[in-house]
Structure to design on (129 residues):
């Protein structure tokens, strides 16, 4: 938030702010939320899971799960979800989560990062207990 305030005070536009983002920031602000939204929808529709169970699997809050399931998240994430998220990979990610294969889930996310953003990420997928 502070970066955005400083950028606006210096006359930097939103487009310029996006150019200033590192690849890691793009993953955190676009890829992961898009993946979580797609995964939450699949966990609910195909596995009949509650919002609380989905939240625990994805390591997010129940409120965030509700937003993902109801489509109340940023337009940038929605665009990213539609354009870059491979639904077969989301299915693989969900299957790994349901099977409690956290390493397999992490590898799926890293493959998506590598392919979509041209770099290897070291993201850890951890569920809350």
């Amino acid at each position: 938030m502070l970066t955005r305030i400083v950028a606006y005070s210096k006359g930097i536009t939103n487009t310029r702010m996006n150019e200033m983002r590192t690849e890691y920031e793009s993953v955190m602000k676009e890829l992961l939320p898009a993946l979580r939204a797609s995964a939450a929808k699949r966990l609910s529709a195909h596995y009949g899971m509650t919002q609380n169970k989905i939240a625990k699997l994805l390591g997010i809050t129940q409120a965030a799960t509700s937003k993902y399931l109801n489509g109340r998240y940023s337009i940038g994430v929605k665009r990213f979800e539609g354009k870059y998220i491979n639904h077969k990979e989301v299915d693989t990610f969900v299957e790994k989560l349901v099977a409690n294969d956290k390493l397999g889930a992490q590898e799926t996310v890293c493959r998506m990062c590598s392919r979509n953003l041209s770099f290897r990420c070291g993201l850890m997928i951890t569920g809350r207990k």
